[in-house]
Write a structure and sequence with these properties.
This protein is mainly alpha-helical. The N and C termini lie far apart (126 Å). 0% of the residues are buried. The longest helix has 84 residues. The protein is built from one helix and no strands. Keywords: Membrane, Transmembrane, Transmembrane helix.
Length: 87
């Protein structure tokens, strides 16, 4: 065998080993990325649920305040009519 052939075999062998190692590491990185994205998806889903619950709660509070204002207006109308009758 020539020295050129031996050098070529060593170079190709080394390149192949490095390519296999890089491929395995790439698979591990992509697997970790998938797990991370799954976790982020769960977190954003949780935040979305919390946001919807807060929105629903604020809607109930606003409805309660509006109902309370309506009741106060009714009392004001009755008080105003009562004062008109006594005069």
């Amino acid at each position: 065998m020539d020295t050129t052939q031996i050098l070529l075999i060593i170079t190709l062998g080394t390149t192949t080993v490095f390519s296999v190692i890089i491929g395995i590491q790439l698979i591990h990185v992509l697997y970790e990325l998938r797990k991370t994205l799954s976790t982020i998806n769960k977190i954003t889903t949780g935040f979305e649920a919390v946001g919807l619950n807060l929105e629903h709660g604020f809607g109930e509070v606003v409805g309660f305040v509006n109902g309370f204002k309506t009741i106060l207006k009714v009392f004001e109308i009755f008080a105003h009519k009562k004062n008109d009758k006594t005069k």
